[in-house]
């Protein structure tokens, strides 16, 4: 009897565990475009196009390779519009009762498959360096789960940038060199862009029709949608962008959204690129003398360090992780996250770019939108849903630890040892956003004061009990405590007034 082999929209890898376990001669691959996956959060239209177009191309490739594929398009009348529903329908159609699936990257879908009234076997997703068991072994008995130590083990295990037992160049981490402010000129034209072919055009039309209420621009659409294109995009970045990736990793420019970033996370996360393949390409460029060590190490750390580490945390911490709210923040997410007007140029530019590209780089996510949400005390569940919806690379296993943990400190400090908060000074140092902003970054209180300046102290003050004994935050509290009482009272009342205006829906 044939078995059903489930392939999800972010599992588009030929070497997927469920495909490796299948019998091409007798099993049926099930792939389904379903409204439930398209709407559990209002995904950005570009993200939906990416996934559905890449699914259609992957299915065609499997068929060419001799697989029998039962593929449901979104508009098919018989489509059950959910993954379990489609499995049940296909089980009846093919007289199958057994499903082989690769463990999804989200607790929600794992639970749905476990509850499905068919016999479902979930195989470990081995497209990562560290299995769950490997991560658990690393985490066991440690007081603090800091990424840096995990990363060193991954370097040793992969041999990436290693000279014998030692790190290449003598240091594990070159982050110190990677904090240069925004450059005056950028000589990288950005990620490789692809003109939509007929498959992509069909999906764009479908998404325009079915998801027209979702935030985000569907056109122009230029993402890679198959493995060949994704590999070309990677090679383009390694050749033209990587050398300066390290130097300007943290910089932000309003008119250069991509700076020297790779824009490969959507391709990695849906399976078009393999993390080791990506890192080897970067290491080869360093070995060939084409890029400096700070660029190669900085990049490889993100992929075999951060990317693996956050996944490990998500599965180690369990299904409640994404819902944590360690600082009890409960304000509503302001409408300007969905494109309404704001006078804060940094936030407005980051959201505008997110709307147009379904992309923002790490520091825009962490130190502009994330920083604002944390300082303003927004409900981290709402913040997390926003990030999960608006970025093309967002799947809960990677999004939740970055947002709930790293950015909102809502996991109580599992990931970060201190909250990532800053006043406007940091944004001004690393970007060109403050030039031309309606607020003045140098003004601390009174007319035109930058909201980040006010909210920064408001955050520290309202969380004094939680953070004042944190050794890494002592200086901040000492500076706050040195201010005279009147100044402190003014800061707090102006911050409150700002938050009240924001909550009342005024343009702030
Ligand atoms: P580059 O800056 O060129 O980095 C190279 C690669 O490193 C990325 O492609 C990515 O695969 C990996 N990487 C870098 N940082 C991280 C990280 N912290 N966690 C995991 N992988 C990392 N990344 C996602 O893939 N999906 C998300 O939903 C996501 N949400 C985030 C939310 C917040 C609040 C923050 C601060 C970061 C988030 N990140 C997320 C991490 C990071 O912002 C993106 O991976 C990166 O911006 C992707 O763009 P890029 O390919 O140009 O990356
Ligand atoms: C994100 C997404 C979307 C928008 N649509 C589909 C879909 O129609 N079919 C599918 O199989 N997968 C889709 N996905 C990806 C899933 O949501 C993803 O597999 C889970 O969130 C687990 O990471
Ligand atoms: Fe953002 Fe403040 Fe700079 Fe305006 S002045 S761009 S609000 S940091």
Give an overview in words.
By secondary structure, this protein is mostly helical. It folds into three domains: 4-123, 3-Layer(aba) Sandwich (Rossmann fold), CATH 3.40.50; 132-190 and 241-312, Serine Threonine Protein Phosphatase 5, Tetratricopeptide repeat (Alpha Horseshoe); 335-503, Orthogonal Bundle (DNA Cyclobutane Dipyrimidine Photolyase, subunit A, domain 3). 48% of the residues lie in helices and 5% in strands. The protein is built from 21 helices and seven strands. The chain has helices at residues 17-20, 35-39, 45-64, 83-94, 107-115, 132-139, 147-158, 198-210, 227-240, 265-270, 275-287, 293-317, 345-357, 362-376, 380-390, 396-407, 424-430, 451-462, 464-467, 474-482, 485-503, and strands spanning 4-6, 28-32, 68-72, 98-102, 119-123, 162-163, 166-167. The radius of gyration is 23 Å and the shape is globular. It starts with a strand and ends in a 5-residue tail after the last helix. The structure holds flavin-adenine dinucleotide, ligand DLZ and iron/sulfur cluster. Ligand DLZ binds at residues 8-10, 32-34, 37-38, 43, 48, 51, 104-106, 109, 395.
């Amino acid at each position: 009897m044939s078995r059903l082999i489930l392939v999800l929209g972010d599992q588009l890898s030929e070497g997927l565990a469920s495909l490796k376990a299948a019998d091409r001669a007798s099993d049926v691959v099930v792939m389904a475009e379903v409204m439930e996956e398209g709407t559990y959060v209002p995904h950005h239209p570009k993200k939906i196009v990416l996934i559905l177009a890449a699914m259609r191309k992957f299915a065609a490739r499997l068929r060419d390779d001799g697989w029998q594929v039962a593929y449901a398009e979104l508009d098919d009348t018989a489509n059950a519009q959910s993954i379990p529903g489609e499995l049940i329908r296909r089980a009846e159609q093919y007289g199958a009762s057994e499903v082989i699936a690769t463990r999804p990257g989200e607790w929600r879908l794992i639970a749905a498959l476990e509850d499905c009234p068919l016999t479902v076997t979930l195989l470990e997703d081995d497209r990562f360096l560290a299995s769950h068991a490997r991560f658990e072994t690393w985490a066991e008995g440690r007081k603090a789960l800091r990424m840096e130590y995990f990363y060193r083990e991954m370097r040793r295990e992969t041999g990436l940038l290693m000279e014998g037992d030692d790190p290449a160049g003598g240091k594990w981490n070159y982050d110190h060199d990677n904090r240069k402010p925004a450059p005056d000129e950028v000589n990288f034209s950005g990620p490789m862009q692809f003109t939509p072919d007929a498959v992509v055009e069909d999906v764009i039309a479908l998404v325009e029709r079915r998801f027209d209420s979702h935030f985000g621009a569907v056109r122009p659409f230029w993402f890679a949608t198959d493995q060949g294109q994704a590999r070309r995009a990677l090679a383009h970045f390694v050749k033209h962008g990587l050398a300066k990736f390290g130097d300007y990793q943290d910089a932000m420019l309003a008119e250069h959204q991509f700076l020297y970033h790779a824009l490969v996370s959507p391709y990695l996360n849906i399976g078009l690129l393999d993390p080791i393949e990506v890192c080897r390409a970067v290491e080869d460029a360093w070995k060939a003398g084409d890029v400096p060590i700070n660029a190669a190490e900085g990049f490889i750390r993100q992929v075999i360090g951060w990317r693996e580490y956050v996944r490990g945390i998500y599965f180690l911490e369990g299904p409640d992780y994404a819902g944590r709210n360690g600082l009890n923040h409960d304000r509503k997410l302001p409408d300007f996250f969905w494109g309404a007007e704001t006078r804060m140029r940094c936030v407005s530019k980051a959201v505008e770019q997110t709307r147009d590209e379904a992309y923002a780089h790490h520091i825009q996510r962490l130190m502009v939108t994330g920083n604002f949400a944390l300082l303003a005390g927004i409900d981290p569940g709402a913040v997390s849903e926003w990030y999960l919806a608006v970025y093309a690379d967002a799947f809960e296993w990677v999004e939740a630890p970055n947002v709930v943990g790293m950015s909102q400190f809502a996991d109580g400090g599992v990931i970060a040892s201190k909250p990532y908060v800053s006043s406007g000074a940091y944004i001004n140092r690393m970007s060109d956003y403050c030039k031309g902003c309606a607020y003045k970054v140098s003004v601390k209180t009174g007319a035109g004061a930058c909201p980040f300046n006010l909210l920064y102290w408001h955050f520290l003050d309202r969380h004094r009990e939680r953070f004042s004994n944190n050794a890494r935050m002592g200086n901040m509290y000492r500076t706050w405590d040195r201010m005279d009482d009147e100044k402190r009272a003014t800061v707090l009342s102006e911050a409150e007034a700002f938050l009240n205006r924001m909550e009342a829906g005024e343009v702030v």
